[in-house]
């Protein structure tokens, strides 16, 4: 499985995270409405992974702002 390097996420703004999450949420909702539940579950898990990465990004930014505390 391919994983983007840490530098890829470091360049993202809060708006980048937000719009990507909205895109994945829309895909999950559309799949659920068309009863493609496997695809809906896939997009939901992908959105959860995005939130986990955004969370990690925010923690790192907070710690850097505090001087590495």
Question: Can you put this structure into words, describing what you see?
Answer:
The chain has 69 residues and is mainly α. It is built from three helices and no strands. The chain is elongated.
Blueprint of the fold:
Layout: H1 6-10, H2 14-33, H3 37-65
Helix pairs in contact: 2-3
Provide a brief overview of the structure.
Helices cover 78% and strands 0% of the residues.
- Low-confidence segments, given as residue ranges, are none
Q: Classify the helix fraction into a percent range.
A: over 70%
Percentage beta strand: under 5%
The ordered string of helix (H) and strand (E) elements is HHH
Distance between the termini: 33 Å
* Count of alpha/pi helices: 3
> What value does the Rg take, in angstroms?
15 Å
The outline comes out as elongated
Question: Could you give the count of β-strands?
Answer: 0
* Major β-sheet annotation: none
Mean pLDDT: 90
Return the structural class. Answer: mainly alpha
Tags for this entry?
69 residues; mainly alpha
């Amino acid at each position: 499985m391919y994983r983007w390097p840490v530098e890829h996420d470091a360049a993202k703004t809060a708006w980048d995270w937000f719009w990507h999450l909205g895109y994945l949420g829309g895909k999950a909702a559309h799949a659920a409405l068309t009863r493609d539940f496997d695809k809906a579950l896939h997009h939901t898990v992908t959105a959860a992974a995005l939130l986990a990465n955004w969370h990690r990004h925010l923690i790192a930014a907070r710690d850097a702002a505090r001087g590495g505390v």
